């Protein structure tokens, strides 16, 4: 009994010892450094997130460096322009002149970017074309315009006063022309009545003289390639000045035409051989001039809206009415018949000669000027039919032309509105 009592007395101690041993043995099933399946999943997820984040960061850094490298390269290519005959203007002066490019000073926007009015410290008014980051025109077109227009001086060409290449900015500084562009008057029913016949005749002759200077009388032989109503600016006396030389090309004296696989400019003003085959020459500019003459006479834009309304282009309509001896029906109604029939018909005749399908039949700009100023003393040849743009070799070309015509803009307040299908660096 005594031994049994001792065993019973020791049993509580043994029970407590066994419980302690069981408690200590439980953690031994998960040794240090192992947290089970849940812990492993968390660690893998964190690792994946870190790797993906690192990859995104590396890609971002690479693209940032590439963008900066391209930007630096463009700026470096433009630095030699500081040796140009044009003054290099500083950015703070332009900010002060335009009130930091305020909305109140914005004149319009074209393919190059927005255009702002500014006033320099001495009181001179300027127009600042600021290259937009979204613009399809770039450093090459900027350089092209600066280098070309610095060498050109004519009363019917817009005067470039200077340029700015600073930080990420590229800007052209022009003389300020208060009446803006020709299309702002010509295609606005409220303003077209301000263009009487004498004014329209003067504008046609002024544009012709400006184009003659580019083709034959300047130190360079230049093809503009984007002559249109929005690229003709008007000064305070409504004298026309051709602008926007970003797409212009210098011609070698021995060259008559160039074949390029890329087309720039605005459909509706393009010669058929250029729009369809990429071939351009001085006769391509003559075609654009002819379209512009017919627009000035009719007050109508040769674009998608006219095509949809009349089922044919403006130049086809002009040809049809001419042959039917109904030229008076083509003239702008805002003229109210107040024009010299002989003078108007001569301009009409010249316009049709310029838009003939065969470029060899089109007159040179020297002949155009001569026909415009000679009056009845000069007999002019009969014009042949203008092109039918439905005669396209491939379906792809039809689609391209149709799309371009549909996207032809109807805005009338732009200063240098440019529609470009594809940029070709000079």
UniProtKB/TrEMBL annotation:
SUPFAM superfamilies xref list: Protein kinase-like (PK-like) (SSF56112)
Domain Protein kinase: 101-389
Residues in the signal sequence: none
One GO MF term: ATP binding
Catalytic activity, as annotated: L-threonyl-[protein] + ATP = O-phospho-L-threonyl-[protein] + ADP + H(+); L-seryl-[protein] + ATP = O-phospho-L-seryl-[protein] + ADP + H(+)
Keywords: ATP-binding, Disulfide bond, Glycoprotein, Kinase, Membrane, Nucleotide-binding, Serine/threonine-protein kinase, Signal, Transferase, Transmembrane, Transmembrane helix
Top-rank lineage group of the source organism: Eukaryota
PANTHER family from the UniProt entry: OS02G0710500 PROTEIN (PTHR27002:SF804), RECEPTOR-LIKE SERINE/THREONINE-PROTEIN KINASE SD1-8 (PTHR27002)
Protein name: non-specific serine/threonine protein kinase
Origin species: Eleusine coracana subsp. coracana
């Amino acid at each position: 009994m005594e031994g049994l009592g001792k065993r019973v007395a020791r049993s509580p101690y043994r029970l407590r010892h066994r419980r302690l041993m069981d408690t200590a043995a439980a953690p031994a099933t998960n040794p240090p450094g192992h947290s089970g399946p849940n812990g492993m999943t968390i660690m893998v997820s964190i690792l994946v997130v870190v790797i993906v984040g690192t990859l995104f960061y590396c890609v971002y850094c690479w693209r940032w460096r590439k963008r900066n490298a391209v930007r630096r390269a463009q700026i470096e290519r433009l630095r030699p322009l500081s040796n140009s005959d044009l003054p290099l203007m500083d950015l703070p002066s332009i900010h002060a002149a335009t009130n930091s490019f305020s909305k109140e000073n914005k004149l319009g926007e074209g393919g190059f970017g927005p255009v702002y009015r500014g006033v320099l410290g001495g009181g001179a008014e300027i127009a600042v074309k600021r290259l937009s980051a979204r613009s399809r025109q770039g450093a090459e077109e900027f350089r092209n315009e600066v280098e070309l227009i610095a060498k050109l001086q004519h009363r019917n060409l817009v005067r470039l006063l200077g340029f700015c290449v600073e930080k990420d900015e590229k800007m052209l500084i022009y003389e300020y022309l208060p009446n803006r562009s020709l299309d702002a008057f010509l295609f606005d029913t409220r303003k077209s009545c301000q263009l009487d016949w004498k004014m329209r005749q003067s504008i046609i002759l002024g544009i012709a003289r400006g184009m003659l200077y580019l083709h034959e009388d300047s130190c360079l032989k230049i093809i503009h390639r984007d002559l249109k109503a929005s690229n003709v600016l008007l000064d305070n006396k409504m004298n026309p000045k051709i602008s926007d030389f970003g797409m212009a090309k210098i011609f070698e004296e021995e060259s008559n035409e160039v074949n390029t696989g890329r087309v720039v400019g605005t459909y509706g003003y393009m010669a058929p051989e250029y729009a369809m085959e990429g071939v351009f020459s001085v006769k391509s500019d003559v075609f654009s001039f002819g379209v512009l003459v017919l627009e000035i006479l009719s007050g109508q834009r040769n674009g998608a809206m006219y095509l949809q309304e009349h089922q044919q282009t403006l130049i086809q309509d002009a040809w049809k009415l001419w042959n039917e001896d109904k030229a008076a029906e083509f003239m702008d109604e805002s003229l109210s018949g107040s024009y010299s029939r002989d003078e108007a018909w001569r301009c009409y005749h010249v316009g049709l000669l310029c838009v003939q399908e065969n470029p060899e039949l089109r007159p040179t700009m020297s002949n155009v000027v001569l026909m415009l100023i000679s009056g009845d003393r000069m007999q002019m040849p009969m014009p042949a039919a203008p092109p039918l743009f439905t005669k396209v070799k491939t379906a792809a070309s039809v689609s391209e032309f149709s799309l371009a015509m549909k996207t032809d803009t109807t805005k009338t307040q732009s200063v240098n509105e440019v529609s470009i299908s594809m940029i070709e660096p000079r």
